[in-house]
Automatic annotation (TrEMBL):
<dbReference type="InterPro" id="IPR016491">
    <property type="entry name" value="Septin"/>
</dbReference>
<keyword id="KW-0206">Cytoskeleton</keyword>
<feature type="domain" description="Septin-type G">
    <location>
        <begin position="60"/>
        <end position="311"/>
    </location>
</feature>
<dbReference type="GO" id="GO:0005856">
    <property type="term" value="C:cytoskeleton"/>
</dbReference>
<keyword id="KW-0963">Cytoplasm</keyword>
<dbReference type="InterPro" id="IPR030379">
    <property type="entry name" value="G_SEPTIN_dom"/>
</dbReference>
<dbReference type="GO" id="GO:0005525">
    <property type="term" value="F:GTP binding"/>
</dbReference>
<keyword id="KW-0547">Nucleotide-binding</keyword>
<keyword id="KW-0175">Coiled coil</keyword>
<dbReference type="Pfam" id="PF00735">
    <property type="entry name" value="Septin"/>
</dbReference>
<dbReference type="InterPro" id="IPR027417">
    <property type="entry name" value="P-loop_NTPase"/>
</dbReference>
<protein>
    <recommendedName>
        <fullName>Septin</fullName>
    </recommendedName>
</protein>
<feature type="region of interest" description="Disordered">
    <location>
        <begin position="399"/>
        <end position="426"/>
    </location>
</feature>
<comment type="similarity">
    <text>Belongs to the TRAFAC class TrmE-Era-EngA-EngB-Septin-like GTPase superfamily. Septin GTPase family.</text>
</comment>
<keyword id="KW-0342">GTP-binding</keyword>
Length: 426
């Protein structure tokens, strides 16, 4: 049996289904719709619906993803180990990374029959580069990639969100170095870039390394800096009566100051007067884990999804502010796309025709030039031929004249000896 979700409900079906808190809110919101109230003649059994949901959720298990942003060696791994009272894999980062990269690690945890798939994402090399202008980018990209993966799964024809490993970041613990001065620009820039994408909780790390009074001043200073720079940090929800008081008081006392030295076990941490470790664990895990998951889905993912779909041209209303269904948007987009395609095809065809015409004209021009050249050469050749012919004739005439002279000369030379002979005889 599935709960009926009315059109227009903000919360996704799968989220309501897997979350008892959401179900209660959904039931509350249903009350505002005018319906006839009927009393039942006897016990029907649907009052067990919340129990059914809880049992289903427990069987299914939960997932929670934490992003730890902070400089190398600031105490990220130590806090995670202390928070979950276990020893996660720890690989110390070197201070000589060329850039920042994110390292996710997933663990299956079990507590009183409740399975938690926990992913801890570490920012390796954060704050170690000389130029830190782009240090926030791999973090933003990582968060967006997890949103994108979820969106792609949602958009599939055959979705399997039920057993999908949701890797969207539910909380970003931002580790601030206990300098005692003010926030570093890297911290401000990074938090500003992340605040619309993830729930941020600022943490003053290694709080034991500065005095209590300095820590107090530092905390006030950084919180006022965050406010004046418009950085939105996560606010614990105060709409649920059972936790509103504790959450309201925690909202006032952010950021958490954390001391997690190895020799202090949790019991000792509870007595540490200037360590908020116990408060952090209470707020993060025991009271607000579900709200963090819900905020991630209903606020941050919703924003990413909306921007992405708008970027792709999807809208809820047409230019006359009339509702526009996904089907209509798709049809409109398809028409627009086909129109575009046709226009481009026509343009290309026209371009091709023009090109052919141009080439044809060029070829004709070349042909004409060649023809002219041929005619010119032909004329030159005929001139040459004529000249040669004339020369030949001249030469022939010269040769004839010569021959005639030769014959005359020969005749003359033959007659000369006869005359000499006659003269001799005489
Ligand atoms: N004084 C003090 N030391 C701490 C605290 N938390 C952690 N440390 C010490 O700081 C050192 C680094 O701690 P890690 O937890 O490995 O720091 P990390 O941020 O995970 O370091 P990388 O993963 O290498 O970036 C260890 O020697 C810890 O014992 C703290 O609250 N106070
Ligand atoms: Mg570490």
């Amino acid at each position: 049996m599935q709960p009926f979700i009315a059109k227009g409900d903000q919360v996704a079906h799968s989220s309501v289904y897997s979350c008892p808190l959401l179900l209660l809110r959904w039931v509350e919101s249903r009350k505002t719709i005018k319906k006839r109230n009927l009393s039942l003649g006897g016990h029907v059994g649907f009052d067990s619906l919340p129990d059914q949901l809880v049992s289903k959720s427990v069987t299914q298990g939960f997932c929670f993803n934490i992003l730890c942003v902070g400089e190398t060696g600031i105490g990220k791994s130590t806090l995670m180990n202390t928070l979950f009272n276990t020893m996660f894999e720890n690989e110390e980062a070197s201070h000589y990374q060329n850039g920042v990269y994110l390292r996710p690690r997933t663990y299956d945890l079990l507590e009183s029959n409740v399975h938690l798939k926990l992913t801890i994402v570490d920012t390796v090399g954060f704050g170690d580069q000389i130029n830190k202008d782009e240090s926030y980018r791999p973090i933003v990209d990582y968060i967006d990639t997890q949103f994108e993966n979820y969106l792609q799964e949602e958009l599939k024809i055959k979705r399997s969100l039920f057993n999908y490993h949701d890797t969207r970041i539910h909380i970003c613990l931002y580790f601030i170095a206990p300098t005692g001065h003010s926030l570093k620009s890297l911290d401000l820039v990074t938090m500003k870039k992340l605040d619309s994408k993830v729930n941020i909780i600022p943490i003053i790390a290694k709080a034991d390394t500065i005095s209590k009074s300095e820590l107090h001043k530092f905390k006030i200073k950084i919180m006022s800096e965050l406010v004046s720079n418009g950085v939105q940090i996560y606010q614990f929800p105060t709409d649920d009566e059972t936790v509103s008081e504790i959450n309201a008081s925690m909202n006032v006392s952010l950021a958490f100051c954390i001391t997690c030295v190895a020799h202090l076990v949790t019991a000792a941490l509870e007595n540490e007067s200037h360590c908020d470790f116990v408060k952090l664990r209470e707020m993060l895990i025991r009271v607000n884990m579900e709200d963090l998951r819900e905020q991630t889905h209903a606020r941050h993912y919703e924003l990413y999804r909306r921007c992405k779909l708008e970027e792709m041209g999807f809208k809820d209303t047409d230019p006359d502010s009339q509702p526009f269904s996904l089907q209509e948007t798709y049809e409109a987009k398809r028409k627009e796309f086909l129109g575009d395609l046709q226009r481009k095809e026509e343009e290309m065809r026209q371009m091709f025709v023009n090109k052919v015409k141009e080439t044809e004209a060029e070829l004709k021009e070349k042909e004409r030039e060649l023809h002219d050249k041929f005619e010119q050469l032909k004329r030159m050749h005929q001139d040459e031929k004529r000249k040669v012919e004339e020369k030949r004739r001249d030469l022939e005439e010269e040769m004839n004249a010569f021959n005639r002279k030769k014959v005359a000369a020969e005749t003359l030379s033959l007659s000369q000896p006869l005359k000499k002979e006659k003269d001799k005889k005489k």
